[in-house]
Amino acid sequence: MYAAHANVTADPQAEAHRAAYNAAFEELGLNWNWDADTYARLPGAGPQGVRAYLEREQAHLLRAYEADFLVNAIEAAKSRCQAAARRA
To answer: FRET pair for 30, CA 20 to 30 Å: which of 1, 9, 59, 70?
Structure first.
């Protein structure tokens, strides 16, 4: 017998943030999708989590773009997507 992978249910606020990030990635043409496990592994919330993800998983982009530029673009798109979701 083996232990099944524990599926940790995220709180609704965290899920809303994760969904907004995924919508922002789509808006920006980034082929990324943060599942609940990926989002939970980020070392922090907001810009610091985005920066860490960029450095770990998308470092090739940092050869062409400044990290601050990418983080700011993603955070701005996330804010737009969150606002749109609240209006819906």
So the answer is: 9
Tens of each residue's pLDDT in the chain, 88 residues: 323 333 345 589 999 999 999 999 999 999 999 999 999 999 988 999 999 999 999 999 999 999 999 999 999 999 999 999 899 8
**Is 6 a member of any domain?**
no
Report d(CA 1, CA 65) in Å as an integer. 48
Task: State the residue range of the domain holding 78.
Answer: 12-87
Question: Model pTM?
Answer: 0.85
Whichever domain contains 18, its CATH number is 1.10.150
CA distances from 35 to 7, 9, 21, 69 (A): 12, 12, 11, 24
Say how many domains are in the chain.
1
